[in-house]
Amino acid sequence: MLGTNRILTTAYQPIANGIVERFHRHLKSSIKAHESTRWSKILPIVLLGIRTAVKEDIKASCAELEYGTTLQLPSDMIETSVIPPFNNIFVDRLRNTMREMNPVATSAHRKTKFYVNPSLKTCSHVFVRIDSVKPPLCQPYTGPHKMEEKLNSVESVKIDDDGAFKYILVKVYDPDNEDSVFKFIVRGDASAAYHGDIYEVTTPDIEKLGLECECVGGGRIKHDPAAKTIHVYGYSQGYGRADHLQTCRLLKEKYPDYAKIDFSNDGY
């Protein structure tokens, strides 16, 4: 509703939140410039100065970006003996300038490249670092964890390009570690008379990779590529109703440009 976007950053990695950490450095330097140990008392005036300072890269202050106008500083409230004459032209020009002023994104002053070890493409197991707060004398890594290369080679969605047809939701897993290494796939075929026919065709392709699979439900799909819509509904008499919500998530990843992908538990 407010147009905000929440972004999570890595723990104990200040570089992941560089803009905020840079502001903290600027704020601490401003507080240290005052000869006072009660930083809580001088904090309001320090923040006022920071918010009214004009940034050179965007040619505006934080207050102007937030409120569309400048803040009134304490020095502006002091009466002077010389009062400039009222100028309508200046006021009109100022109003027009403030109306045309648009916020400009803060520029990034550095580009960080993250290093990825090339051996990750070929290794069979990996250790995962624990970035949360750890008790003393505990291991900083978990593992070894088996890479999911074989699972990633299985296409998540294979359905017909048009029409209404039966589909099944299949769980593909590593037989050595079924609980933690698995994924769901969707298979749909208009030529299949029964849901079991689709499963019989899918199983050999999975077993060739050294994996195993289990059909966790079925239903029907109505695919309209012209309107860019997909509707998931119904159930399978042999396998039961599939988790249509999970199916829709996989379909949205496969067809990100579609206008509508929804589901209903009604119908057969």
Automatic annotation (TrEMBL):
GO MF, one annotated term? nucleic acid binding
The residues that hold substrate are 166
Which SUPFAM superfamilies does the protein's record reference?
PHP14-like, Ribonuclease H-like
Q: Which residue positions are annotated as catalytic?
A: 195
Residues passing through the membrane, by range: none
A Pfam short name: Ocnus
InterPro entries this protein is in? Answer: Janus, Janus_sf, RNaseH-like_sf, RNaseH_sf
The family classification in the record reads:
Belongs to the janus family.
Q: Please report the name of this protein according to its UniProt entry.
A: Sex-regulated protein janus-A
Organism encoding this protein = Araneus ventricosus
Encoding gene per record: janA
